[in-house]
Amino acid sequence: MRIAMIGTGYVGLVSGTCFSEFGHEVICVDKNTDKIDALHNGQIPIFEPGLEALVEKNVKAGRLSFSTDLKNAVSQSEAVFIGVGTPSRRGGGQADLTFVFEAAKEIAEAIDGYTVVVNKSTVPVGTGKQVHAILAEHCAADMFDVVSNPEFLREGAAIEDFMRPDRVVVGTTSEKAQKVMEAIYRPLSLIQTPLLFTSLESSELTKYAGNAFLAAKITFINEMADLCEQVGADVHDVAKGIGLDGRIGRKFLHAGPGFGGSCFPKDTRALYQTSLENDAPLQIVKSVIEINEKRKLQMAEKVISACGGSVDGKKIAVLGLTFKPNTDDMRESPSLDILPALSKAGAHIHAYDPEGRKEAEELLSDVIFYDNSYDTLENADAVVIITEWNEFRALDFTRIKSLMKSPILVDLRNIYEPEEMASLGIQYSCVGRPHAAQKA
Fold first, then answer.
1. Angle at CA of residue 33, ends 31 and 39, nearest 5°
2. Residues noted as catalytic
3. Could you tell me what percent of the chain has a pLDDT over 90?
4. What is the pTM for the complete model shown?
5. Closest by alpha carbon to 47, among 323, 361, 264?
């Protein structure tokens, strides 16, 4: 198949590269000439494990290319995927579809023969019909079909998610378009990946419903962690106890500082806005949004409490700034709320993240950045783990105690055991777990 991918952001670049790995001929298009020039030079604009090598491999094989010429790319493709950004609008939760509609208009003007136009971007219910209307202004009805094919990629594990997905959801009622999509995803039939065909609206809503459900699951276990702290229970045991129930499952039951990233915050807001516009308000989703925003500030209070009730004038070392490990993405990371709150309380913030420093320097003020964990910890009054990067899972606590003014560790990801920390002489605070003294 010949495929054009419009947009070389996270979704577009990962999807286009993986399609080329399937054996398809893919051309990724972007208006940003600097980004395309960089890709031609082998420079990847995002951090995603394995992506750079996969791009290089398929470029050398002649299956993957990059261009700013949308018209030429569309005219020679059987399927055109729209993979542009859909950020939240300022002042509201609605998804901004400006880039989607601009892409649709340019695609309509470039179509030369029957083409399947696929929405890969995360879009609200009804967007497919709007894209269809834009195309219909320029093209005859038999020249195109519009399909919804949402992505379900986790940052840090996107390639594995694409190559071995739980399912592929495709929204279309056109038999012709269905055959094209079946051909595109045929390589996945070898691993018997479920290919679910449904309506445009059902497919669009599935993406939002899935993310909202996972966000609700995270929020639920975070609230349970708060209750565990009050009654002396251990949220790890509670999560395991309910997660072993096949109806619930173990994933996304890890208590922490709240969810962030490019998807969950944006998508829950957009879904709730859609529910209001259609007179079917989703109160659970509304609560998830509100609780998650409050939680990030609660984590700052947890740090302050661990420091004896005040961080004024104290050096607080922070390990991890991105919203999750294995990405450089800072979008809506808990650190963007926690660090300013600590600064406002008088703390001097010193921070390190393996990949997020460049973005963090643009988003955070009054923070001193370092290139490794131990330099960050020197003369610190406390250390806070916000992101559970692997390199933070085996810290040398003998060395840490020699570096810090006081051995206070606030572990917002629960990656250490309270008993172990107590035995090492570390004053340890975590989320939803009793301290060693309480357990004893």
1. 105
2. 263
3. 93
4. 0.92
5. 323
